[in-house]
Specification:
CATH superfamily of the largest domain: Histidine kinase-like ATPase, C-terminal domain
Strand order of the largest sheet: 1-11-3-2-6-5-4
Number of strands: 25
Distance between the termini: 105 Å
Strand content: 15-25%
Structural class: alpha+beta
CATH class of the largest domain: Alpha Beta
CATH architecture of the largest domain: 2-Layer Sandwich
Radius of gyration: 43 Å
Largest sheet: 7 strands, antiparallel
Number of helices: 18
Length: 714
């Protein structure tokens, strides 16, 4: 075997092995390297053995080869970087596939024996088309890979064909397999990313097919090994015959493999997976056959990309629907943490996890109770990350996992209150179900038990110990969408709170002004006429009592903005007597106001007297502030099914726009001379009270006056 000495290539240093410049090729074919002027720079030691004629460095190709390959060579000499083509030379058993490409200003010609007749490629194309027809309607990647694996196994005759899929952390798994009877199954086998070093992954992308005809081959060195002009080794990255790492050959040999082929699955320019073919005896597959399976792999990659886009779109759409439903339930929630934890569908259905925690203002609540301690530790850790709103790790930061939880995906939805949602995942170590005992059918090899299927799996277990399954791009996307949705809810809640604060302050200033004026007036009159002291004390008591009630009423404003309506306490009430008292109070509150009364006595109704009083005082105050001549008329009458209350006063004409918006809050009335300290809330509150009584309030103007009519259903 061609293994290098342990001092040269070992498991410890294989990541740095220059596998693209091995200085040799596999001996089942031959290679020649040409300069840009057609001179031979180097050739494999076995060149003459295969071709029957030698290629001397510093000279042109032999005439016998140029006579057959002249057009191919001329095309390569005049081509730009990256050119590639193929041809055929020789006859019968001495025929060759000639694979040509230009790389780093060197033209490489590789000669592989081609025992197939000229028309065999048409049959191969038909075989490839049959595989494609089987896979094009696959509904998921698992079914797709199973069908391709079975097709390659059937058409190539390899003992075992496996489909590998790489994970986000570059570890891999056998996800599909087809093999001849009697072989141990490797389905579900995991291996660490180090099994395929980064430079090997790069070559799998550059050169999608890779054949090893005989694992225990003796390589054929390049002569000379170095480029005579640059002094550097020849870069064989794109060469089909490039010699293979001895570490990889030892791994295959330990598995009992003598011949292998791999075909890359490249999606979006990245190595997504590969098909790996194993045979227990030497096996050479013609270049034209490999090309057909390379085409199958490219079709497979396109289908994988399409399926993943469909699956990603469906996952995002489903998550967005759930996020929207969750968001709708948060706007009116009194306890945001409880609402998030009790939402249906739950937060744990957005992202695959073991538990979810919601943190806000130092309070922590979990869905399943598993992550209580982990969430508190993570909350302390995240509080120091001022610049991050999304945080994702698959290994617990700084210490041992808590209750077996290793992975955390967290999003911050409130910076001021340190509000986070956290998803937790456990350690990802899994037990592979072997179809037999593989240690009985593989050898350890000179580099130790690491280079066996069992050893590779154990190495994977060691690598992932203490790690969770990495968070995918889709999961991060979903988490970010949820963060934005909850952040929007928090913004609106804060905005509504600020708005409610303004409205409450304005309402206090508006609705408490009348009783305060009554108290002030009464207090000033106490010293003028002691005979009226008893009456004024009663007026003060009435006004201060009403002030207390109005504070409670103003608090109801927040209920209106939350859509909860106006709360009422209906009791049988003598409405006529109530309006008489309110008229007396108004005359004290607004000195000089001439209030005409037309109150039908004895009208009874089931109303909230305090709420109704608030309406009457608002309307009279409005007449005093905005009327002409300081005159107003208060009327009360009863119909068959309603009580009719009217407050009218002389007033200048209003625009139609203003008339239609009288009952809207914040109407801009602060700019008016007569209402500098109001925000237009009195009529807004009065309208809500009338509606809560099953009635209405309406404003009309005509004949030089404005009339407010309140209808209360009885």
């Amino acid at each position: 075997m061609h293994n290098a000495s342990p001092d040269q290539v070992t498991l410890a240093n294989c990541e740095n092995e220059p596998i693209h410049t091995p200085g040799s090729i596999q001996p089942h074919g031959a290679l020649v390297a040409l300069a840009a002027d057609g001179r031979v720079l180097s050739r494999s030691q076995n060149f003459a053995e295969h071709l029957g004629t030698d290629a001397q460095p510093g000279h042109p190709l032999p005439a016998v080869l140029l006579s057959q390959l002249g057009e191919l060579v001329e095309a390569g000499l005049g081509a730009s970087e990256g050119w590639g083509d193929s041809a055929r030379c020789g006859e019968g058993e001495a025929s060759f596939d000639v694979i040509a490409h230009r790389f780093k200003n060197v033209i490489y010609l590789e000669f592989e024996p081609q025992p197939l007749p000229e028309n065999a490629f048409h049959h191969l194309a038909g075989d490839a088309q049959r595989i494609i027809s089987r896979i094009r309607h696959a509904r998921d990647t698992e079914a797709l890979l199973r069908r391709v694996t079975a097709g390659i196994h059937e058409l190539t005759g390899y003992d075992r064909v496996m489909a590998y899929r790489f994970r986000p952390d570059d570890s891999g798994e056998v996800v599909a397999e087809a093999h001849r009877p009697g072989l141990v199954s490797y389905l579900g086998q995991r291996y660490p990313a180090s099994d395929i070093p980064s430079q090997a992954r790069r070559l799998y992308i550059q050169n999608p097919t890779r054949l090893i005809a005989e694992v225990t081959y003796d390589p054929s060195p390049l002569i000379p090994a170095m480029h005579p002009e640059t002094g550097q080794p020849f870069d064989l990255s794109y060469c089909e015959l490039r010699s293979v790492s001895p570490i990889h050959c030892e791994y295959l040999n330990n598995m009992g493999v003598r011949g292998s082929m791999s075909v890359s699955i490249v999606v979006g320019g990245k190595l997504w997976g590969l098909f790996s073919c194993h045979h227990q005896t030497s096996k050479q597959l013609a270049y034209s056959v490999r090309l057909s399976f390379q085409m199958v792999s490219q079709i497979c990659a396109a289908l994988v990309e399409r399926l993943e886009q469909i699956q990603e779109g469906e996952a995002i759409n489903l998550a967005q629907t759930r996020i929207h439903a969750l968001e709708e339930g948060l706007h009116d929630a009194g306890d945001l943490i409880a609402a998030l934890c009790q939402a249906s569908p739950g937060l744990d259905q957005l992202v695959e996890c073991e538990d979810v925690a919601v943190c806000l203002k130092g309070r922590v609540q979990t869905l399943n109770g598993i992550a209580d301690d982990a969430a508190r530790q993570m909350q302390s850790h995240l509080s120091m990350l001022s610049d991050h709103d999304l945080y994702a790790v698959n290994r617990w930061p700084g210490s041992a996992p808590v209750n077996g939880l290793c992975g955390v995906l967290a999003v911050r939805f409130d910076r001021r209150k340190n509000g986070w949602i956290m998803w937790f995942r456990p350690e990802q170590v899994e037990n592979v179900r072997w179809g037999g005992k593989p240690e009985k059918i593989v050898d350890t090899g000179p580099s130790g038990p690491r280079l066996t299927p069992r050893g590779s799996f154990e190495a994977w277990e060691e690598v992932v110990r203490g790690q969770a399954v990495p968070w995918s791009r889709i999961e991060r996307n979903v988490a970010e969408r949820l963060r934005q949705a909850i952040a929007n809810v928090m913004f609106h809640r804060v905005s509504n709170t600020d708005s409610m604060r303004q409205m409450l302050i304005a309402a206090l200033g508006h609705d408490l002004r009348t009783p305060l004026q009554s108290i002030t007036m009464a207090a000033s009159m106490l010293s003028d006429n002691e005979q009226r002291t008893a009456r004024l004390r009663q007026a003060i008591a009435t006004s201060t009592g009403r002030m207390s009630r109005l504070v409670s009423h103003v608090m109801e404003l927040s209920r209106l903005q939350a859509g909860l309506g106006m709360a009422l306490a209906r009791v049988p009430t003598d409405v006529s007597a109530l309006l008489g008292d309110l008229a007396n109070e108004a005359e004290l509150a607004y000195p000089g106001l001439s209030l005409e009364r037309d109150i039908t006595p004895g009208i009874q109704a089931n109303v909230d007297p305090d709420r109704l009083a608030q309406v009457v005082i608002n309307l009279i105050g409005n007449a005093s502030q905005h009327g002409v001549g300081n005159r107003a008329r208060l009327s009360l009458s009863a119909g068959p099914k309603e009580v009719l209350l009217t407050v009218a006063n002389p007033a200048p004409p209003m625009s139609e726009h203003r008339l239609q918006n009288l009952f809207a809050p914040f109407k801009g009335t602060t700019s008016q001379q007569g209402n500098r300290d109001g925000l237009g809330l009195g009529l807004y509150i009065s309208d809500a009270i009338a509606r809560a009584h099953g009635g209405s309030i309406r404003a009309e103007q005509g004949e030089g006056e404005v009339r407010f009519t309140v209808r209360i259903a009885v």
